[in-house]
Amino acid sequence: MNITVKLFATFRVDRFREKGRDYPEGSTCREVLADVGIGEEELGILLVNGRHAPLEQVLDEGDAVSLFPLIGGG
Amino acid sequence: MNKILRVNMTDLSTALEEVPAAWAGLGGRALTSTVVAAEVDPTCHPLGPNNKLVFAPGLLSGTTAAQSGRLSAGAKSPLTGTIKESNAGGTAAQMFARLGIKALIIEGMPKDDTWYGLQVSNNGVTIVEESDLIGKGNFAVIDALEGKLGKKTGVLTIGPAGEMKMAMANISVKDPDSKIRSHGRGGLGAVMGSKKIKYITIDDADAPGVTVAEPEKFKTAARTFAKAMLDHPVSGEGLPTYGTNVLVNILHESGGLPTRNFTYGQFDGHDKISGETMHETIVARGGKPKHGCHAGCIIQCSQVYTDEQGKYVTSGFEYETIWGMGANCCIENLDDIAEADNIMDDIGVDSIESAVMFGVAMEADVLPFGDGKGVIRMLKEEIGKGTPLGRILGGGTANVGKTYGVTRVPVVKGQGIPAYDPRSVKGIGITYATSTMGADHTSGYTIATNILNVGGYVDPLKKDGQVELSRNLQIATAAVDSTGMCIFVAFPALDIPECLPALIDMINARFGIELTGDDVTELGKSVLKTEHAFNQAAGFTSADDRLPEFFKLDPVAPHNAVWDFTDAEIDEFWNF
After folding, report:
1. The CATH number of domain A2-68, selected from 1.10.150.130, 3.30.565.10, 3.10.20.30, 2.40.30.170
2. pTM of the model as a whole
3. What was the ipTM of the complex prediction?
4. Alpha-carbon gap, residue B108 to B117, rounded angstroms
5. Please, are residues A46 and A59 in contact by the beta-carbon 8 Å criterion?
């Protein structure tokens, strides 16, 4: 299934901004994270279609996964 | 710190007072709010002789504690009519603290049209007449005063907006590079202008300095505290790399980025104004991607933004400003936004209030959405020059909304709502509604837990847990605001267990006392209750702890969220 993966802040370094990638049916966010080479301890925020989601969340065709390191501001 | 400096602008007298026992344990916001609540009639006119303008460094200001250089400014706000505290970095807090000045209280007002400057030094404070600098922008004032008094002089200054008593007017503080940090919110610049004070200079030659009661304990705690700042990814990596503007993309992705005067939750042009883009631009042009607003800041969330020729345009280029002019006003050109930021620094207006105001002005067709050059022109030629249109705009968001018959006016208690949509980030909506300051995001920054996974996670799209989250953060923030600490210490404090105890240890070591975590919570609660009581006496009721109607009626995309708290649910906030 086709998933859009979006990377932000330092996650973009030596990776990409946004890519459509193919994953097998039943894939979870955890697999996406591993696939782009980001460690779970580095992960700050994970959104699926704009909503916070756990790593175990199973993805559907056309989902967009946004990955951020821990960031903050005011 | 053992002195209270009092300045009476009615009879042009000054006094040096001892610190009353009741104020000894207070600093920063705790002190400014206590003084305002004790000495200002809550029903007074904020621009009249009975308002007072109070400056107070924090409890740890002037020590070697990292992040401790914030100055609080307080008064009754001409924008909201509530009590107001605004804190800023820059050079002033540490200079006041080293001089032993616990607070500077300015009261009364001159009867005639003469303007003045105040000169603070180890001898107290002198009132001098001023004419040359009246009408000048803040950058020119800082330049001129450095020329006259030396490069090391501290400066607090108001621009033409403050002189004209506009409700958006701020107070500027000179930073270590002679540029500007701001006491932004709530029109404190107008209060200073109403007292006919153009600037306050600070000379800390021969200052007694700050004595620490238990130096070894302090050093150990300070080390632990500094380590926590650097260890936490937000304060140690994200903020120094991307500044606060790192937030554009996360708010866009989660659908909480107020766009086109709070009509949508996402902005098509987000990539052009994001922190990532700003970082790349600064680096490519040879600006400074990281920069501290005061000596002793190790987070360095500020930056110096230059034009294509490498010339300084602005520093302290914040998410709030870039969101406001960018997503909220639909201006996609980061250079236009930077120029606007420079002008706002110079004429002395709050960049948040200005941006939210322009969103409403655009909705009213005063100028088109996306018109960056139009915003620049109006800041310089209308607001900066005090034309009739400029006076309307300079009165802030609510003023413009009322003048033009707009209903989508995002304000609470008359103050413009900052960069997070309350419909899709419900925790911050509770903060906006209940804060004693009016719509204020830093007073109880639930974004940390609603969006950023700091201090846990509370779903931003549900009502559950938001009131408790906002309450806990508002209490904690009121306490932190009293220490002189930059609020960004909250990120490590929420996640790293040694951080908050180290902060408390530093306070204890500084004064030779034994505060506990509970004492700090009680301090926060007591500050909020003092402020709340002032507001109630000023005429505010629970009916003012509400968001504008349109948030209930208009769903915000992409999650189609609305503001759906009942009045009773919101009022639960004050049950502590």
Report:
1. 3.10.20.30
2. 0.97
3. 0.96
4. 15
5. no
